[in-house]
UniProtKB/TrEMBL annotation:
This is Cupin domain-containing protein. One of its GO terms (molecular function) is 2-oxoglutarate-dependent dioxygenase activity. Keywords: Dioxygenase, Iron, Metal-binding, Oxidoreductase. Its cofactor is Fe(2+). Residues 92-220 form the JmjC domain. The keyword Iron applies. Gene3D superfamilies: 50S ribosomal protein L16 arginine hydroxylase, Chain A, Domain 2, Cupin. The lineage of its organism: Bacteria, Pseudomonadati, Pseudomonadota, Gammaproteobacteria, Enterobacterales. InterPro entries: JmjC_dom (IPR003347), NO66-like (IPR039994), ROXA-like_wH (IPR046799).
Amino acid sequence: MDYQLDLDWDDFLKNYWQKRPVVLKNVFKNFIDPISPDELAGLAMENEVDSRLVSQPNGHWQASNGPFESYDHLGEKGWSLLVQAVNHWHAPSAALVKPFRKLPDWRLDDLMISFSVPGGGVGPHIDNYDVFIVQGMGSRRWRVGDVNQSLKQYCPHPALLHVEPFEPIIDEDLETGDVLYIPPGFPHDGFTHETAMNYSIGFRGPNGRDLMSSFADYVLEQDLGGEHYSDPDLTLREHPAEVQPYELERLRTMMTDLVNQPEEFNQWFGRFITLSRHELDLAPAEPPYRSDEIYDSIVQGENLIRLSGIRVLRVGDNCYVNGELIDTDFIDAADAMCRYPLIGQKELGEALEDPAFVAVLANFVNSGYWYFND
Ligand code: AKG
């Protein structure tokens, strides 16, 4: 389905994005759920798929991780099933992410889908990412509190992090086609009235710790930063056990100089940011294609489809896919691979006549990053 989101994006970015939560009423007109509860339950039975069941039998919170073998033990009230990264596994659900491509691809995390029966929910909590919660079938009451309330968090179960009760600034029923946007840090809680499907499109910014740790791995891998601290200008000091401020400054400069190499920084970031945090539905081509087969199919009018959920991004003058450089000088063709989910002769242009480019493309097709529709 071609989902249309009726939203004034300029107004949204100016007034709400990363600033305050908002309920966007009926922005998906005539919304049809892309997946049925049975299909979602089936996905949560798969090993590769990340899923959770959260329930409150007798008022006590319970949580367990999939894959699940059966749902027979669940009653008609007080539970919900949550499945992460459904956009990686289910093409019709992935279509729901498309209207959010007004926001940068590199900030997208995944589409999480929840199915909840009356009284179900995951409880009051705080996330550190932006989320658009689309109401599919059924209805739920959402309460959202203000940020900066220094609310205490606690674990009612080892797998759940809840937040203490909060005063709502939003307290509204969501109906089919409504969207609730919540920036990071705002406590929220959804309570199901009528058996419901909710679609959470999450956007996550990396934190400094993850950036540092990945950059450190890159420095090691690329054998950068091998120069040692040196001090030919050393003079006598009165306190031999003190590291002097100018020495600390030099050490800090040694470290920041490593980050301040734009080419290395971009290379690292391109690889880092195109690695998916969630499992991909990768199916390497079997048997593998030869380059000339790929070339022939494309010039005969076939298109390559990008694997759903795979991250393909342009960083500076290079493009990256799933942690790898798209190693080519045909930047327009590589750029098209980032921009469009479907690529063919028109998008790839003259690059198709270059055997080295086609070999790079064949390699990605054989890895399962792109596939022909057959
Ligand atoms: C979230 O996506 O942050 C939610 O709280 C959704 C949980 C749900 O659908 O029950």
